[in-house]
Amino acid sequence: MIYDTVIFDLDGTLLDTLGDLHLAVSYALKLNGLPERTLEEVRAFVGNGILNLIKRAVPAGSSSEVVERVFADFKQYYKEHSMDNTAPYPGINKLVSDLKAEGIKLGVVSNKAHFAVTEIIEHYFSGMFDISLGERDGVRKKPAPDAVLEAVRVLGGKHILYIGDSEVDVETARNAGVDSVMVTWGFRTSEELEAAGATDFADDTDCLYRIVKEGIYAYPAE
Fold first, then answer.
1. Is residue 1 pLDDT above 90, yes or no?
2. Active site residue 9
3. Which of 9, 11, 16, 20 is catalytic?
4. Which domains occur in the chain, in start order?
5. For residue 174, which phi and psi values (nearest 5 degrees)?
6. For residues 164 and 208, is the Cβ–Cβ distance under 8 A?
7. β-strands 87-88, 15-16 pairing
8. Residues 164, 9 contacting (CB under 8 angstroms)
9. H or E stretch at 135
10. pTM value surpassing 0.85
11. What is the pLDDT of residues 69-111, one digit of tens each?
C-alpha cells in the first residue's frame, strides 16, 4: 500500500447527509417564524460546522439571540432525526470494508458536532473506523489541521491520505501537510473544488481504492 492511513471527511464524502440537514434547518427556521431555505442553499452553507450553517441560514442581520434559538432547535431536531434519510454513497461500505481488510488505519474527521459523528459512525460503520472526531470545545474546526493531526497521532500513521469533498477539505489537507483527494459526488462541484486548489479527484470508490494502493497519480491510467 502507498498509504497506511486514510482519513475521511463525513458529510458529502462518506454519507449523503444533505436531506436530513435540510430538514433540520427547515424545522428550526420555521419554528422561529423565519423563511425556510432550499436544499441547494443548504448545500452551499455546509462545510464549516453546524453553527456556521445556522448563521448562514438565518436572514442577514439576525441578532445573536435569534441565531442561538435557531441553533438550539436545530440541534434538538437533528439529534433525533440525523439518520432518517442519510445513507452511505454507492460503494462506500465496500471501500471501507476492503481498506480495513488490507490493514489500513481509518479515521473520520468532521466539522459536524462530535455527538452526531460518533452516533452516525457507529450506526453505519460499526467497528470499521479506528477513530472518529467531530466538532468539540477547545479544538479548532477544519480547515485548521488540529483534528486531522490528532487523528494521525492516535493512529500512528506515516503515509496519510485525506479524502474530502469541499473547499474546506482542500484547505484542511494543505494545512495538515498531507496528500488529499477530493470526491466529485459530494456537496461541491469539481469546478468549485478546482477553483479552491484541488488537483486530484475521484469519481467513484474504485478510483479511491486504487489511489490508496498505488498513489494519487495511479488513476486514471494513461
1. no
2. yes
3. 9
4. 5-16+87-214 (3.40.50.1000), 18-81 (1.10.150.240)
5. -65, -45
6. no
7. antiparallel
8. yes
9. strand 131-135
10. yes
11. 999 999 999 989 989 999 999 999 999 999 999 999 999 999 9
